[in-house]
Specification:
The longest helix is centred in the N-terminal third of the chain and has 41 residues. The protein is mainly α. It contains three helices and no strands. It starts with a helix and ends with a helix.
């Protein structure tokens, strides 16, 4: 009879250990899931994507640059050829 009691006791201990192990595993999984949810909730939202702004009206800027080139030509800083080359570059855009 001692052998049967030993086997029965081992079966009870093994069953209890399995039940406790499963309970611990479920509890840890629940905690990890909760931590994941908290981490997800505290993440910053992705930055909002915006379309590129429309290009600025270069008409005023080009006119100012042309006037400046004209002044530099009139002062003798630029030759007529240099002025013409820069003017063509500006107008080609």
């Amino acid at each position: 009879m001692g052998l049967i009691r030993g086997v029965a006791r081992t079966a009870v201990v093994a069953g209890t250990a399995t039940a406790v192990s499963n309970r611990v595993s479920r509890r840890q999984a629940g905690r990890w899931a909760e931590q994941d949810q908290q981490a997800y909730a505290t993440q910053a939202p992705p930055p909002q994507q915006y379309d590129a702004p429309p290009p600025a009206d270069d008409g005023d800027d080009m006119l100012a640059q042309l006037e400046k080139l004209g002044e530099l030509r009139d002062k003798g800083v630029l030759t007529e050829e240099e002025f013409s080359a820069q003017k063509a570059r500006l107008l080609a855009g």
